[in-house]
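Suppose a colleague, Dr. K., hands you the sequence of a protein chain of 198 amino acids and asks what its three-dimensional shape might be. Before reaching for any lab equipment, you can write down a predicted structure in C-alpha cell form. Begin with the sequence itself:
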Amino acid sequence: NDQEILHDTQEDIDRKMAKHAAQGITHVITFSSTHFRWSFKPFWKEINDCIAKIVRAGHKYGIKVIEHHSCNLTHYPDTEENRNMFEGEMILRESTSKNWPGLEKWMMDPENEIEKWVQISGATGKPVVPYGGHGRCFNNPEFVNAYLKYLEDVYATGVDGIMTDDVHYFYPWACTCSYCREGFRKKYGSDLPQPEDW
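The predicted structure, expressed as C-alpha cells, is then:
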C-alpha cells in the first residue's frame, strides 16, 4: 500500500519480509491500493520500483513473490456513488486519493487513452461500470498490446509470477465496442443489436 510504495526503503521492506520468513512463509502475493492498476498508470514507475524491492527482499529470504493486479479495471469517480466507492476502496487499503497527486484528474481526463479501450454495454451503448469504474475490452488490440508491454515491465522486476485478475467481460452487459461488433459480424455473419433492440 502507500507506506511500501511511497515511503519504505529497501531496508524497511527487508525487515517486513524477514518477519514473513521467520513465520515459515515461502510465497507471498501482492495486493494493494493500486489493484486497479490502469488507474495508477502515472505511478507505474513507483509501483514497479516497490515490487522490485519486495522481490529483492523476498529472494534474500527464499520467498517467492507473485504480483497481483487487475489487468483491465479502473476507478471512474464521475458520480457521488462511484467517488465513494473509489475512496472506500482506497481507505480499506490504507490509502486516500490525496496521497496520489493528480490521480483523479488523470482518471477523469476525456483524452485519457485508457478510456478509449473500455467495454461498451450492449444494453446502454455506454461504458460498463463494474465496481464503480470501467473495464477494458480484450478484443481491442491497442489495449492488449499496452497490457502485454506492462507485463514485460513487471516481469523485469524479477517477480516469480503474476496473477492477472479480472480477465472477463462484466455481466450482464457483454461488450459491443467496435472491435467486438466487427468480430461478431465476421464470426456469425450478423450484427449485434443496438441498445434499443438489446
